[in-house]
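Weekly sync notes, structure subgroup
Attendees: PM, AL, DS (notes)

Item 1: joint prediction request from the bench team. They want all six components modeled as one assembly rather than separately. Inputs as received:
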Amino acid sequence: MTQNSPKPISRFPVPKLEELPEDVRARILAVQEKAGFVPNVFAVLARRPDEFRAFFAYHDALMVKEGGGLSKGEREMIVVATSAANDCHYCVIAHGALVRVYEKQPLLADQLATNYRKADITPRQRAMLDFAMKVALRSGEIDETDYARLREHGFSDEDGWDIASIAAFFGMSNRIANAVGMRPNDEFYLMGRVPRERR
Amino acid sequence: MTQNSPKPISRFPVPKLEELPEDVRARILAVQEKAGFVPNVFAVLARRPDEFRAFFAYHDALMVKEGGGLSKGEREMIVVATSAANDCHYCVIAHGALVRVYEKQPLLADQLATNYRKADITPRQRAMLDFAMKVALRSGEIDETDYARLREHGFSDEDGWDIASIAAFFGMSNRIANAVGMRPNDEFYLMGRVPRERR
Amino acid sequence: MTQNSPKPISRFPVPKLEELPEDVRARILAVQEKAGFVPNVFAVLARRPDEFRAFFAYHDALMVKEGGGLSKGEREMIVVATSAANDCHYCVIAHGALVRVYEKQPLLADQLATNYRKADITPRQRAMLDFAMKVALRSGEIDETDYARLREHGFSDEDGWDIASIAAFFGMSNRIANAVGMRPNDEFYLMGRVPRERR
Amino acid sequence: MTQNSPKPISRFPVPKLEELPEDVRARILAVQEKAGFVPNVFAVLARRPDEFRAFFAYHDALMVKEGGGLSKGEREMIVVATSAANDCHYCVIAHGALVRVYEKQPLLADQLATNYRKADITPRQRAMLDFAMKVALRSGEIDETDYARLREHGFSDEDGWDIASIAAFFGMSNRIANAVGMRPNDEFYLMGRVPRERR
Amino acid sequence: MTQNSPKPISRFPVPKLEELPEDVRARILAVQEKAGFVPNVFAVLARRPDEFRAFFAYHDALMVKEGGGLSKGEREMIVVATSAANDCHYCVIAHGALVRVYEKQPLLADQLATNYRKADITPRQRAMLDFAMKVALRSGEIDETDYARLREHGFSDEDGWDIASIAAFFGMSNRIANAVGMRPNDEFYLMGRVPRERR
Amino acid sequence: MTQNSPKPISRFPVPKLEELPEDVRARILAVQEKAGFVPNVFAVLARRPDEFRAFFAYHDALMVKEGGGLSKGEREMIVVATSAANDCHYCVIAHGALVRVYEKQPLLADQLATNYRKADITPRQRAMLDFAMKVALRSGEIDETDYARLREHGFSDEDGWDIASIAAFFGMSNRIANAVGMRPNDEFYLMGRVPRERR
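Output from the run, pasted for the record:
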């Protein structure tokens, strides 16, 4: 794999694509095909194939699945807001790009990353993020009143599980990214900011 | 699955064993065979088979793998200390049992859960836990000096990855357990406290 | 006094029983008679007889007195929950034993030490512990609404004084124990966990 | 006892002097004789004679005793700095008066109450207060290095015990005063600010 | 300018009065005329005339202006409470003097500096200070409910702007004073404590 | 003034340009001429002309002045890092644009806003930001060692004054912007991200 920046993308060595197990390589080639580049999280985690497989299986179960009360953009909004609370470069910048792309809203990610309470979101999304932030920062205090507030905004308890699991999964991802020094690809910074035809 | 306590083990419904996909059921039967009971985390997560599979695949990649500079008991020590910082009943009590069993040290888990700085551990284990707690609580501040301190105590950088990933994975587990109201099995509380022949 | 562990029970020297003033020695012999061992707090504080006397006089005024709306077990519950918030080995482990013994509830102490909000307690006990934790952690914010909430759960204002004083007294005890490196006796860890007839 | 202010000095009833046990009344009359008024802590705690006796016995053992490396003024400095951290009106204002009187330094108490790091104190006193503040705020982190730093400044380990016990005792006192709404006497505010001959 | 204390009033050099630009010198002479001494903030900031001018222009716009729902004493109460939260010697002590002078209440400043929740203030002033403290400590959480609470106590939204701006301006002042080591004049400590005729 | 967004730019009314005092209007027209739009901070503060004048006079004294050891881009880096710590939309987004423009570095502002410790900056800039963040978050702990560390990186004490004053001034600005609900102009989000010729 060629690093797309002269700066190291991790404090750990990054494996060559041809050295990887077939399934890991296939997953990386597929994402490269779709995105036009390899997001660094794939390159950095690939050195531990079992962890790579479990990480992306969990990711897909939460973020890619169809159905449920959360749009793909809303799931990414959870990621951006909680990752900012966890001081994680990689997730704020990479998933900020996804918020812009899915929501077709070029300003939203930067708002969420700074202060989700002042972002251009609906009251329902505010309730979703309040719950997610409580999971991220004070999960030991969650109780029935938190689920009740979600229900007032039309979320089912299954949605509550989804919100909590996304906040928890990216809480893990943030800590790993911070500990191994994972750098976001330069491509993410501009993605979704400029209308397609202008690029 | 029969709940081993009259108290609910989660605020979400727990599926019947016979309703589960074959691989999930097989995993549960295997752990029941080995432990003598089904730890509630298996019963609670089974309702979401994809998440169940990813969760335990990640768990096994970090906690069960052979090799590396961390003993199984030391990995469980990381879980107990960080889970206490995250106020998680399930993980402190269930993994406290594993610390007692693996380390054959009946006092250690309670010490780690209250204040790991005063526990009966080696300076090397103290360095391991300092690193793990920084991942759990202030991962955005981790830098090269943290890895240097690990190396002074004989840990490789791969061990650093392991410590960080265990702290991060259980940071996720703690948040999910807190959010879904996961209750530890009564069996865990006494496990490893009394010599086998006395029971 | 013979230390009941090869580990030092304090960073300060522990006096010999025969060197102690008569009243201090008598108190220690009495507790040894009753408990079967000398809890280390007696051994550690005995080197300062005046402080020893005042400490245990205050302790007895709050914890041993008859009457009032708090059972002995509830008073110990306050000690465990607040001592966990103060990271104190000695008090969590020694008074956790007393919670188990008084309440005849082998699981409760570990629950309270990790997250009292999720423990198997009544709403009234939850209100009692919320008040105690506010005294322990944010006493400057206590106002009339806190007493009103106690009254809703049937506590008198005198009970409020008791709860506050217990939280405050053990806040002192926690800080002294932490500062002098007081180690809990090994005996406490198992006490109250196993039914008498099985031992 | 006549309250020296139209504002209540506690949310609890204050007993009449003639209703008190002989020893409690004698103690109160003695302090009134010496100070010219009854500090409210005596009036407020008197309703619980056993607690009153233990409280003042402990107080005297730490604050009045002769010998040791801490002057009376330095002991009061510990009280003011830690009580400010605990947001306690009574102790900051009453013991601030004692700092001014013992140290014959009219500015020091207000400095300590706001930010002890910038107060007009010696490096040795700064080390004393750093230790006391760690006892007050993060006692679970105290270790051998804290005692070593005290020794660098000429404090013995016995002095360390004294500093820790004073910070811990007033940590209790602060919490009780905050919980029962104890009001400092108006007399304390001006005490020690104006040279005697000018009054 | 002669420093009115043998202790340095700043870690930066203090300019001579005769070296200052005419307008800066005139302002300093005017305050000296009125107060009887030069408050150190004038002496310390004078070395940067442009910053001096902007600082006092802002100060005057907020603190000296006529009209609005806040008395001069109430504005100073905001300064004392928020400056205490910011650990600033200069502002707590200098503006504490102004609270005493404007409010003719010798006890109030010390109460506000320790714990404004327990101070002798009206419910309306309590609401004012709650708003100011939220601006000082958690401004990102301010929303419409905070203004609604002000209105319940008779404050207009313009008063809200005033309260917020005073808390924000002195938040700046506190940080500058702390960073440059600004020392309050000795004169402030006693000001307003003793009735005029007694001095 | 026409608002450049359908969303309100403040919870307070925004004055019409023609209603403003001549000097305020002139300043606004000048910035509009230069930037191509009126940054909302000008529009929002204009309703209080005296505060407007003082605010921008202070701003210019710190941010526009020539000389000193800080480049214009470095001053804006301080604003972005500290404003992120204060959860301020307006300042992170508006001054993030200026960091990109002055530093000709399209990635830097987003990095600083998330976690300045991991940003692409020099060790000297890291020391500058460590000092600025201490001013923003714990100014009461600043002492001589902080200035010594600045000097190790080639900063003069005058530079220290500049860094502290910028962090303090924008600490004020952040709190005002948060309290009055100031919204950043949409134009800022994209500024400096795309090379000029591509737009």
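Discussion: Chain E has a mean pLDDT of 95.
Action: AL to compare against the crosslinking data before next sync.
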